[in-house]
Every structure is written in structure tokens, then in C-alpha cells.
């Protein structure tokens, strides 16, 4: 028997002026989700079941950008996406463009388990959800007053806002006043807040899941890194990885897969692999990731000023943090 480990994230890139009460709310949610996962692992629940269970909890709480509380499109609607991967046989499922599915990560799991495909999007994904009998709600369920206000700010600024929870203070994830670009175009941004979970269980099975509402004021139909296997999510026999941050940079670098690749081809340990890809594979992009290895290690890495994260291992290590 091996050792279990778990990590949870609520997004990389945090406003340095984030109010203390918001910080405490985030830590409480992360702690609750971490305890949920730890309890399941102690009861020998499989890694794939644990990541789904934890991400469902994150999707249900409106604090972070997934499920209820998702960022709004330019039309004021919600289009959610998620993916899940079982490292044992590299099985995976992903969904995009969801507007009524209460828990996108569970539909991604059904794509993996109950369909002949790996990725289903938009009207096809919605039809599959109804075929499978998953819980659906009106799109209004996902929309919060905070997000309506942030969309208004984004439209007034004629830009994309990553952080949908707190008013734009002119800061961004790369430092106060530092402009960021996405595919060469300037944007105002400081906190991309995808959620994710990675787990290795006592059998050495690794799994990962990621879920998001995407960018505030994004173009309808935009797909980010979260549902893309190898970019936002990856799991294999060596590790499980979930990424968060500037989606276009994560896609270009196939960031999640890179962690596994350098472990396999450069023979790096988990911590060294995470450090290597954060430093050398993001170019000018801003992002973070959480990862576990099949030997019970856990690691987090980011190249911005903070990442909402929590992690624990069977040997007693536990951390809930935002800043470096």
C-alpha cells in the first residue's frame, strides 16, 4: 500500500489588496473541500471518485469561478467547462459550453464512463446531460449579483476581467500596473479563478479534475484550457495535474502534460518537475498548478503573486494558503 495525497486549488493570480474577510472565506472553503477529500481517502475511496466529489463541492459554492458563481460571457450568460482524468489507464472526459448542468465535472465523468467519446460540447453536451439524467437548472441559477456587477465594469472598460468577485483596482496577477497580454492583445486581469483537485490514493492511482466558468466578458463560444486534456488537466501512472491561470498560455505550453513529460523523460521528481515547467514553459504567461505523484508527494507552483490552494498528505503534512 502506498500513501495518499491531495491538493485543491481555487485559482492562481490574486489581487494583493484582497480584503481579509475574502481571504478567510476562501481559506474556509478550501479547508472544507480538503477535509472532504481527506475523509474519503481515509475510507479508501478511489482517486477518481475523490476528485469528482471535491470539485462538485467547489462548483456548488459561489465563491470561486465554477458552477454557481461562474464568470459571465459578453451576453451576460454562463458557459461552463470541465474535465476529469483517471491516470490508471489515462481515461478522460471533458465538456464545454454548458448552460444548465449544475455540476459540470460530473457530466465530464459521464462522458468518460458512459460515452464512446472523450469530449462533448455545447448543445451536444446539454443533450447528453439530459439523456444521462443529471441535475439541470436554469442559467439564472449560476448568475450572482457580484458577477453582474463585474460584467458591467468589464463592458465599461471594454476588456476582459479575470477576477469576477471584487472591483477592478487596476492591479493584475503580474504586479501592480503591469499590463498583461492574451495572444498579443492587452487585457486588464489579476485573478483567473478556475478550480481543481488532484489526488493519489493508497493504491497509487492518480486522478485530476478541473472546472471553470472561464473569463468575465469572454466571447461566447470561447474554450479555455480547463477542459483540454494535457493543457488544464492531466493524469497518468506517474502524476495528476490541474492548472489555473492564463488559459491561452496554458494551452500553448500543454502545461499539465509537461509535468508528466519531464518526470518521465528527464527523470525529475514531482517538485522539480513542477518548478521546471513553471519557470521554463510559460513564456510570458501567468499561471499555476497543483500536482500529486504516485508515491504520495504533493506540489504547488505558480509564477504570479498568489494561488488559492490547499494540500495534505497521509504522513501528516497539511497547508492552506494564498500567498507564497
Automatic annotation (TrEMBL):
Oligomeric and partner information: Heterotetramer of two alpha and two beta chains arranged as a dimer of alpha/beta heterodimers.
PANTHER family: ISOASPARTYL PEPTIDASE_L-ASPARAGINASE 2-RELATED, L-ASPARAGINASE
InterPro entries per UniProt: Ntn_hydrolases_N (IPR029055), Peptidase_T2 (IPR000246)
Active site, per annotation: 194
Annotated EC: 3.4.19.5
Lineage of the species this protein comes from: Eukaryota, Viridiplantae, Streptophyta, Embryophyta, Tracheophyta
UniProt-recorded name of the protein: beta-aspartyl-peptidase
Keyword Transferase in annotation: no
Site, as annotated: Cleavage: 193-194
GO BP, sorted A to Z: proteolysis
Alphabetical keyword list: Autocatalytic cleavage, Hydrolase, Protease
Residues binding substrate: 222-225, 244-247
GO molecular function list: asparaginase activity; beta-aspartyl-peptidase activity
Reaction(s) catalysed by this chain's protein: Cleavage of a beta-linked Asp residue from the N-terminus of a polypeptide
Pfam families in alphabetical order: Asparaginase_2
Annotated source species: Vigna unguiculata (Cowpea)
